[in-house]
Amino acid sequence: MDQLTRRRFLIASGVVGGAALAAGATALTLNEILATSGDRPTGAKTLVVITLYGGNDGLNTVIPYADPAYGSARAELAYDAADVLKLDDTTGLNPGMKGLRDLFGRQKLAIVRGVGYPKPNRSHFRSMDIWQTANPDRPTTTGWLGRWLDTAGGDPRLAVSFEKVLPPLLAGEKSAGAVVGVADAKLPKGMNAKLLGDFGTPVAGEKPLQARAAECFADLVRVQELVAEVKEAAADEDDTGEADAPKATGTGGLAGLQAQLDLVAQCLEANVATRAFSVSLGGFDTHADERQLQQTLLGYLDRGVTAFLQRISSTPAGKDVVVLIYSEFGRRVKANASDGTDHGTASNVLILGDSIKGGIYGEQPSLTDLDDGDLKFSTDFRDVYASALARVLGADPGQSLGGWKGTLPWWV
């Protein structure tokens, strides 16, 4: 195949940028991640971070149904006690989270309430930057897991994202994690299987970087085929009658959370060296008609996570996997005039796995003693990260969190 044609196609399809080819940038493929099979230290745990982009409404996720202030502030948006998946006499889960309620009953789900940081920011981008860099005080260019990667030797295969771009979460000062994208190849009309294969086949005499880009494209095609299989399987199994998931707002979950988690599971089954994975789901910016939209999204989260945990439970690495789910902020306590909620502050973090002690942790923020209409945080998010660094990745939290030492007791 003509080298110029291949180069133009690779750039136009979104597999790699022209500037990246010129500068000598490289990308890791799924095959290169799977090639680390057997390199994993015995007993090493794995952290899977799920980002919910858009600001998930924590009060309609982990619901304080027995608090009269909840129903009073939300009118039609509030869930009746009869509809809530009860965890105890005061707290329950959204009706879309039946699988997670079951995991809670088996002590495999820990709920940390009132998680936030001082002087909260209600901008999506700034607050997400704070959560991913773990630095509420000033902007920074490195993420908390990227800084861990720096201390772990800097091999990008140790921290992998199955999102479109590398999240700040995985960017270090001296190194960065790897991206294995699962979406966004804009294939021209009329592209048949033979031509598709030709684009991913090495050509004698071509420049090494173009050959590498072609290899990445071939790998992307393979990943997309896996994603298609996951979607077809999910469609066959889904008898809930729910509407299709709405498109993500801005960022997150471009290939579907379940598809991303399927690839994480494949890596775990291969016992790869990767210690931290980043995946995401978008669409949680629910300013209007929130109730059904959020319940649908939480249903996708619930099914994706429970299917993932069930799948890996039969693997040697399954008992050593910890899943951490967070969003950049919660929503306002009071519903708005459009049956939605506006940007708020403190919310919940969910932790799942066999090696954690399930239960409810942290103080539920008051729904009446508010900070300009918002919840006052009761748990600093760096306590959550410090626990994950120490107990999952076996690292010194202070090295990645600027000396922060606080932890939480959600471990067996």
UniProtKB/TrEMBL annotation:
Keywords: Signal
Signal peptide positions (record): 1-27
Organism of origin: Allocatelliglobosispora scoriae
Superkingdom per UniProt: Bacteria
Protein known as: Uncharacterized protein (DUF1501 family)
InterPro entries (UniProt xref): DUF1501 (IPR010869), TAT_signal (IPR006311)
One Pfam family recorded for the sequence: DUF1501
